[in-house]
Design goal:
5-stranded mixed sheet; 2 domains; D-Maltodextrin-Binding Protein, domain 2
Length: 343
């Protein structure tokens, strides 16, 4: 059990009355709107992915924290690294508070960087909250010639990827352009789990979007058996659990390149956000936000998450909105440099 989960469980048990009081306030605020209704969380990656597991855990408990205890279900809409789900959310999903979405956060860069696949404006989504903050790693299979970052700067490495706008493609191309690695992308995989299987089979040699929490929890045997080598980590700063693993942005060729890395890594602070289409009434949006917050404090949920080996850390809706605003206020030269990863 992680420190984050352990602390939250203790807090929830000590303050057991607080969530109940807050839940009552939430129910009074949203009235009986959700009575007899169904909420759907659409996940932009396949079943078995990290985003899917978080959504499934939330779905099992969130309904208890909404008036009328609605049923919460998860459906999957993989495609284009998460763009398919985000596009549908922006264009056609109900805007009454019954439709939620969970995708990777890197796709929110797409409109800023000139991507043609994104048909949404991230600044207009209704942010509900995040379930954790993800630090990402770039790994190579133990049989690969590339064993560390220094090797990656001189030798080609076959990297698996899902979607041209997903983090596995964005981060690998960014490392090539901004730091000089020699990754060769193999695209077309449906999601992270498929890439993991391909790496074990020897079809590819690495993956450049491996969440640290997923690696240490769900694929811990890879670490203990030394099946993978962590080439570098990606984020605004080093994860305290990986002090010896280099931060790829430290290898940037120039200050602008480092700024481009930081722009690309800012979405990681959002973790796996849960959001809704634009225009959701504030009454329903506030009820959903509070229900998610209470869910992430719920001892039953936390016990479930611990069994699923999921790290939990609530990211508020205002924090998500602020991160999106920070991304879209980036200096022009940094945006232009980050856009070079598409060429």
């Amino acid at each position: 059990m992680t420190h984050c989960i352990r602390w939250t469980i203790v807090a929830a048990l000590i303050c057991g009355g607080v969530p109940n009081a807050a839940a009552q306030a939430t129910q009074e605020a949203d009235g009986a709107f959700y009575a007899g209704k169904q909420i759907t969380i659409t996940v932009g990656t396949p079943a078995g992915s990290s985003a899917s597991l978080y959504a499934q855990a939330v779905a099992r408990h969130m309904g208890r924290h909404l008036s009328g205890t609605p049923t919460v279900l998860v459906q999957h809409l993989p495609g284009a690294g998460g763009l398919s789900a985000a596009n549908r959310a922006f264009q056609t999903m109900p805007r009454d508070g019954t439709a939620l979405v969970s995708t990777n956060s890197v796709i929110f860069l797409d409109p800023l960087l000139g991507g043609t696949g994104a048909q949404f404006d991230p600044q207009k989504f209704t942010w509900i909250g995040g379930t954790h903050v993800e630090h990402s790693t770039c790994v190579a299979w133990h049989t690969a010639r590339v064993q560390n970052l220094r090797d990656a700067l001189t030798h080609e490495l076959l990297m698996g990827s899902y979607g041209a706008s997903g983090p596995s493609a964005v981060f690998a191309r960014a490392a090539n352009v901004l730091a000089g690695t020699k990754f060769k992308l193999v695209t077309g995989y449906a999601g992270g789990p498929e890439v993991m299987i391909a790496m074990e089979r020897g079809e590819i040699e690495g993956f450049c979007a491996m969440g640290w929490s997923e690696l240490k929890n769900r694929y811990s045997a890879w670490l203990t058996e030394k099946k993978v080598n962590i080439l570098f980590q990606m984020g605004l700063e080093k994860d305290e659990e990986m002090p010896r693993v280099p931060l790829i942005s430290d290898s940037a060729k120039s200050p602008v390149d480092r700024g481009a890395f930081n722009l690309l890594f800012t979405p990681l602070e959002m973790g796996r956000p849960i959001y809704a289409p634009p225009g959701v009434p504030s009454k329903q949006a506030d009820a959903l936000r509070e229900a998610l917050r209470l869910t992430l404090l719920d001892p039953l949920f936390l016990s479930d998450a611990a069994k699923m080996q999921l790290d939990i850390r609530h990211v508020s809706a205002p924090a998500l909105q602020k991160l999106v605003e920070q991304i879209y206020q980036a200096p022009r030269d940094v945006v232009e440099r980050a856009s070079a990863i598409r060429n």
